[in-house]
Amino acid sequence: MYFVLNFTHKIRETLTGPCKYFRLFQFHRCSCCSGFGFAAKDVSFRPTSLIWECPFGCFGVSSPLLSACSFSSRYHSGTRSKLPRLEIDDFDDRKYMNDKFRQVGIKGSENLTLIGSLLNQNPSFDDCDESEESDEEEEEGGDGSDIDDNFTVLNSFKRNQIQREDVCRVELEEDEFRHPLVKEVCRLIERRSAWNPKLEGQLRNLLRSLKPRLVCAVLRSQADERVALDFFYWADRQWRYRHDPIVYYVMLEVLSKTKLCQGAKRVLRLMARRGLACWPEAFGYVMVSYSRAGKLRNALKVLTMMQKAGVDLNLTICNTAVHVLVMANRLEKALQFCERMQIVGITPNVVTYNCLIKGYCNVHRVDDAKELIAEMPFKGCLPDKVSYYTIIGFLCKEKRVKEVRDLIEKMVQESSLSLDQVTYNTLIHMLSKHGHADEALNFLREAEARGFQIDKVGHSAIVHSLCKKELIDKAKGLVNEMLSKGCIPDVVTYTSVVDGFCRVGKLDQAKKMLQQMCKHGCKPNAVSYTALLHGLCKNGNSSEAREMMNMSEEEWWTPNAITYSVVMHGLRKEGKLSEACDVVREMVRKGFFPTSVEINLLIQSLCHKGEMNEAKKFMEECLNNGCAVNVVNFTTLIHGFCQKDDLDAALSLLDDMYLSNKHPDAVTYTTVIDALGKNGRIEDATNFTMKMVKKGLIPTPVTYRTVIHRYCQMGRVEDLLKLLETMLSRQKCRTAYNQVIEKLCSFGNPEEAEKLLGKVLKTASRTDANTCHMLMKSYLNKGVPLSAYKVACCMFNRNLIPDLKLCEKVSERLKLEGKLGEADNLMLRFVERGCLLPQCE
To answer: PPR repeats: which residues (predicted)?
Structure first.
């Protein structure tokens, strides 16, 4: 890797003849520029690499000549700012390079072709780096409207090129994953948060003993792909170690299963700069990673990157492009891509057509998928079983079981594909998964009649499907049939039957099934007992479930987090809240933590029962024990105190939220505002509303309704309007003033409501019409029909037609008060709008 030579005189003699010894050295980028240590998250490779920070400062030695010298880039990082900086672009001239060597006491060399070859390896790939970096700055993903431009790269396909064998996939044996070195490296990686120089040194020594395939096993063993990528970068910076080419491909394969597209692109660039062969499969991995990240345009631009890098297209990368388009729901683009493939001479194979069939099924065009299968033989490509399985899976999902039979007959007759054991297993699993247990059972009988033996996994799938449909007798009969055929059921099969008995309330049969498991040598596990406990709690026997869980150690099984949750919910539903809280405490002691939803349900139950102090104590215990207490839990408890009119406790709890780094949201503030308004503390409610808006929280519709209700209830209309202006400046609410008018009408204050009528009639919507009708009714109830008439006239002026029956009532009241002109004018307005009067009808 990289090191600093503090004693240059020790190797000056070696370097005095650069023509003789210069091939012993290779120039690489100084690792001190990107930091040191495995925890580095952002390791970027720029188009220009630093190779001249100081004399002899950044040599990457591939020769054992200086193996005795070990240096750390940490020492070099401290002197970096004092040293001259020279970048790789400065070495384009050979004469300039010789001058630089003379400055440090080395005679000029006329044979530096090795450096030129190293610096100019695959220059076409580096040329596209700048454009790639610009892609990161623009908006990723996009609508994919310009992806047609990427189809032109197919024109570079060479019709007569020889297709090579796929050598980029590395198949690892199980023994390689269990290798002691691999396990020890994985153990040290898991302790990366507590790394020190000693542990890092141990890992560095192990790394040098790892063969390339074992390094691949380490990468694939990581549960978190980011950790695998960090280890890949860390290992690449170590001295006397160089990644084998297969390690790069395995790293790209791991990243292709994630959304870490930028990391995959950087690994690909690193391969090009190291002079490694970049086969199309490497680009395909990057393309799939971009696709998983939802960046379709960048995924297809990988094809352009291939063209610039001088890598020839092949059918594999084209199939990857089709797959990416299908997964992005761009079926039409995928079809266009296939057409362009055939134009340039790339003949689609069965993989290509299977991708298109998958695309047709994704958009529910199963008839087109069937038609494509029928056309494949005429295009020189016979469909395989995967082609049919894709459509069969879609038909099972859509519950079109009859068409499954027809398609199977077509597969046998037209495509000459025989029904083998794999086919029957696939059909059984698909039908069972989507609830067609009877059809799956029929295929099981048919397979056995043809001499095929379906394993216990297929039987278990049918048993599970029968139990979900509550066909317990059939399920139990199938289990007995398995025993008679010598197909011993496993714990999954028995657990499905236990759960089925619990579904129909036959708890005694479920218990007997657990005993039968033990007799047949199948030990029940935590899932089996959890299914029984769930049945007990569902039928109101949560106390028995609690006792059974307490006896778990004697029964040689260990409850898991789901087991505790099941029992806790059962006790909570039966009102045994104290015991439910004890279950949660025991759960925490055993290392299992309840979710915030489960905590909230218990807090809500305690608050509903009026046990506020117990609820607060329970939440504090959960918070102190590291449980996932969130703002919703605090809000639920605050709401409980507000319901009990204990505002001081509620406000104190609001302060505790800040101390616990849990920031109140709009729902929390709305709860407090409503409680303050309910108790007449309208000034405090105003302050909290303003505080909520200043914090950048967006008022919800419930917030508007709460504020409007409390202010209208107290007749503080002017204060309400000022507050609404502030709230509306943060978040628009079109019906805010409608709610104000309706609330004022409901509280018997139509005069104040009429003042806001102009703000409501600006939009002239159906909601505005309903608001005006409520105002008219309010005036009629107060015996002021003339005001109701004025409201109706305002509606007509805004091209809103009032309710005819309501206006008839207004007209009758106007006549009783002797205002005949207004009454007749109101009816004439309806005639002018083309609305017939009842007398005319």
So the answer is: 314-348, 349-383, 384-418, 420-454, 455-489, 490-524, 525-559, 560-594, 595-629, 630-664, 665-699, 700-730
**Token code pair at residue 1:** 């890797």
CA 378, 379, 380, 382 dihedral sign is negative
Q: Which amino acid is at 371?
A: E
Q: Which residues are registered as beta bridge partners of 61?
A: 25
**SS3 of 25, please?**
strand
What's residue 159's pLDDT? 59
- Please check whether residue 19 is in contact with residue 98, taking contact to mean a CB–CB distance below 8 angstroms: no
52: enclosing H helix or E strand = strand 50-52
795 half-sphere exposure, CB direction, 13 A CA radius: 29
10 Å CB burial of residue 245 (0-12, 13-18, 19+) is middle
744 φ/ψ angles, rounded to the nearest 5 degrees: -65, -35
> Which residues are within 8 A (CB) of 155 and not within 5 positions of it... i.e. 6 or more apart?
344
Residues in Cβ contact with 379 at an 8 Å cutoff, skipping those fewer than 6 apart = 348
CA-closest candidate to residue 494, choices 470, 473, 510: 510
What's the pLDDT at 217? 92
pLDDT of residue 764: 66
CB-based contact 104:14 (threshold 8 Å): no
Per-residue model confidence (pLDDT) at position 150: 58
Nearest to 508 by CA among 477, 544, 458: 544
pLDDT-derived band at 839 (thresholds 50, 70, 90) equals low
Q: Which two tokens stand for residue 571?
A: 């006790």
Token code pair at residue 498: 């236990």
The answer to whether 458 touches 429, Cβ cutoff 8 Å, is yes
| Residue 27 phi, psi (nearest 5) | -95, 130
Render pLDDT for 460-471 as a digit per residue (tens, 0 to 9). 999 999 998 888
* CA nearest to 825, candidates 789, 780, 779: 789
Rg of the chain (C-alpha set): 38
Residue 442: both structure tokens together? 């029929």
End-to-end CA separation in angstroms for the chain: 97
The string of pLDDT tens digits covering residues 12-39 is 444 444 444 434 444 444 433 333 344 3
Evaluate if residue 397 carries a pLDDT over 90: no
What's the rounded Cα separation, in Å, for the pair 787 and 780?
8
Burial class (CB in 10 A: 0-12, 13-18, 19+), 711: buried
Q: Which two tokens mark 54?
A: 């100081």
